[in-house]
Structure formats: structure tokens, C-alpha cells
Amino acid sequence: MVEPKIRPLGERVLVKLIEEQEVRKGGIIIPDTAKEKPQEATVIAVGPGKLDENGKRIPIEVKKGDKVLISKYGGTEVKIDGESFQILREDDILAIIEG
What DSSP string runs through 40-73? Predict the structure, then answer.
């Protein structure tokens, strides 16, 4: 994957979805139409954070390279150089996957 030349604004985060595997335990192949939307993603780029009421920048908690759980229907899907990414607000990130 070539890193896209894009910088999210404000409290937005650019992520690359981690597609679930096509074959599950037991060798069952899942057709594309039956797959659920992936909820795991890798953080590609982060914005500078949002401003509070005093104009002070609140930094984003995730960083580039973090593996995260995201809201199932949050964000906006974008294609950059033929690859699919998602831009979402920090609030659409549910958790950081550690380990």
C-alpha cells in the first residue's frame, strides 16, 4: 500500500479498513454480499485535533499505525489512487486494539 498524500482536517482521521477473511473456520467461504462491513481499521493519518471554546487545540488520542475499532456506519468512504479509505471523526473510533 502506497501512503496517500492526504492530511485530515480538525478532528478527522484517515483509516484503511482491514477486510475480514473470505474463509472462516471450517472452510466455509463467505460471499461478498453476505459479509458484514469491517469494523477494524489501521490509522493512516490524523488531523491536528479540534479547537475548544478558548481556541486551544485538543489533540487526537489515536496515532498513525494504531489498529482501531470503528463505528459500523460512521465516516465517509473515499478512493485515493484506486484504494479505498475512510475518513471519520475521532468520535467514530470506538477503541484502540492493543497487542
Answer: EEEEEEE---EE-TTS-EE--S--TT-EEEE-TT
Interacting residues of 72 by C-beta distance below 8 A, sequence separation 6+: 36, 37, 39
Residue 26 to residue 40: CA distance in whole angstroms: 23
Query: What is this structure's pTM?
Result: 0.79
pLDDT at 19: 77
Domains of the chain in sequence order = 10-19+55-99 (2.30.33.40)
C-alpha dist (Å) from residue 90 to 5, 33, 42, 59: 20, 29, 13, 10
> What nine digits make up the cell of 33?
454480499
3-state SS class at 8 = coil
